[in-house]
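Question (not urgent): is this output format expected?
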Amino acid sequence: MYLESKNNKLDTELIEKEIMEIVAASASRLTPQYLEKTISEKYGLDKTRAKAVLKDLVARRQLEYTYEFGSTYLVRSFNKPVRIATHLVIMPAGQSYQPVSDDVVIQIKSGAAFGGGRHPTTRLSVKAIQYVLKNVSPDCLNQRCSVLDIGTGSGILAIAAVCLGIKKGLGIDVDPCAIAEAGENIALNKLENRIVISDRKIDSIDPAFSMVIANLRYPSLKNFYPQISKLADSGGWVILSGFRPHERADLMDLYTARYFKSIWSADENDWAATVFKKI
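Got this back:
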């Protein structure tokens, strides 16, 4: 039960921590009413107090409201610096953040293109990039190493790969909005001399890249297998995300049948990502 006492602050912090964990662990968006009911029943809060706890989380930019298909939801806020991997923090344009040791901080301007860090597949992709470049520390980290980001969206994955150690990158997308916004984010992070954003089709790109990233839905990841196999350099790395855990086995069978071996895999909120090494 929730106690109105000298431990009120501590109790409130515990409740807020649980709310954030509930939101982070949910595969679907949660309404304010659902969260109010959940914490009211568990901690014995009245409706007014439950609303106040949620309102305070919004005021401190821990949560934010989003509106979709006629309903209002509370989701994790990205209108402030947010750590999405052990070594990587994303920050809205114009804000400031004091990094700790080994932090990489990238700025992403809010826009329409996919890739602001809110979706699990973006976070999984960044964690996969970090795993390869920080944990494995491959031989590709030299003056010639390069990354290809297929369906670059906001450009966040190409930016993350370059900031974590890749020397140069190419991000491609068919969406003019994504091309424009990715270009803005490249400039925002002062990476114009290291990352190129293009509307080139995947079949027109010359191999080979040290790392190929594709955060796309399952059918596209299957359809692009021939091109990705050619575009990844020997000994290079392929990072796939955007598929569901139950689709993983089929992708594994396809990619490991001839050219690749599986190195790493992770799930978040019913989404999955995997890392392959070309053999």
